[in-house]
Automatic annotation (TrEMBL):
The chain holds residues 494 to 782 of 782 of the full protein. This is EAL domain-containing protein. It comes from Parasphingorhabdus litoris. Residues 24-277 form the EAL domain.
Length: 289
């Protein structure tokens, strides 16, 4: 009897697994079509300079609206593309959008930066790196205004290879940021060896830092570490004014999060954040946005 029960459970499990795999294959086909037909677009989340109280730039985040299922999170479809070895195409699309938009922004307000997320495996893809560098080189936004965000686990997986790729990227005038910092197993010695410009403290620490002592300590010590290593430090997941104030007090350079702005379409970014940012304060921008 037990054996039968167990057998049934396995059968069920297999069925579910098969369905999940089938769904993923469907999604992949649909994604490839969406990329081909341009049904993928890019939104921007403003980054706020906490020291100088001004707009710093934005992070480009990819969006996909499935015809039946609605908006699907990049946390679901990015890994599917990565596993299928098809993340290069999507990333070049996002980079193209970001560079087009950044060109408009820099013409209207100089000094803004735009960050693009680069998957782990792309650091090992020389053809991709060269294409990306050529694209950035073709627009004139000034050194350091295009930022590639790489997760720390990505950079640490194959340290030697990552160091070479990151060096090449920085030589081309592109800045490098370590994304989701604190979720992997970075240590100071690793961080020192990576040719990078910026650390982004993961939102899981930032969101909870007001109430949670150990997460606050994590944020505080990461800011100190960044200062010691001469790196810019960005906090993501800033969800409230008290959190923003605390980060400013701790000497954090830049904040990003829902309290400042949710990710928005480029038209909204241009209308509500450009130019106005040079003359108004964050509180006013938040109301008008
Ligand atoms: P990420 O690069 O760490 O981006 C930050 C994520 O946090 C974004 O989610 C953003 O919408 C969300 N977020 C921003 N502020 C807040 C906040 O105050 N509170 C909370 N709870 N969340 C906040 P999103 O857009 O869903 O992207 C998720 C992840 O997908 C990104 O994490 C990134 O790893 C990946 N991703 C997004 N676009 C791309 C892309 O073009 N290429 C690659 N390779 N990955 C991407
Ligand atoms: Mg990012
Ligand atoms: Mg992040
Ligand atoms: Mg993340």
């Amino acid at each position: 009897e037990q054996a039968i029960a167990k057998g049934r459970r396995w059968a069920l499990h297999d069925e579910e697994a098969a369905r999940a795999i089938g769904q993923k294959q469907n999604l992949l086909v649909e994604l490839e079509q969406a990329i081909e037909f341009g049904n993928i677009w890019t939104v921007y989340q403003p980054k706020w300079n906490l020291r100088e109280d001004r707009l710093e730039g934005a992070e480009a985040l990819v969006r996909w609206e499935h015809p039946e299922r609605g908006i699907i999170s990049p946390e679901i479809f990015i890994p599917i593309l990565e596993k299928a070895g098809r993340i290069d195409e999507l990333t070049l699309n996002v980079l193209k959008n970001a560079l087009d938009d950044l060109s408009i922004w820099s013409a209207r307000q100089s000094g803004l930066s735009c960050s693009v997320n680069i998957s782990a495996q792309l650091l090992g893809n020389d053809a991709f790196i060269e294409k990306a560098i050529a694209m950035v080189g073709a627009v004139n936004t000034g050194d350091g205004h295009v930022i590639f965000e790489v997760t720390e686990t990505a950079a640490l997986a194959d340290l030697q290879r990552s160091i070479l790729a990151l060096k090449r990227i920085r030589e081309a005038g592109i800045s490098v940021s370590i994304d989701d910092y604190g979720t992997g197993q970075s240590t100071m010695s690793y961080l020192q060896r990576l040719p990078i410009d910026e650390i982004k403290i993961d939102q899981s620490f930032v969101k909870t830092m007001i109430a949670d002592d150990s997460n606050r300590l994590m944020v505080k010590s990461t800011i100190e570490l960044a200062k010691a290593l001469n790196l810019k430090v960005v906090a993501e997941g800033v969800e409230s004014q008290p959190c923003l104030d605390m980060l400013s007090g701790l000497g954090c350079d830049v904040g990003q999060g829902w309290h400042i702005s949710k990710p928005i379409p480029s038209e909204v970014f241009e209308r509500s954040w450009l130019k106005a940012a040079a003359t108004t304060n964050l509180r006013m921008l938040r109301w008008s946005g």
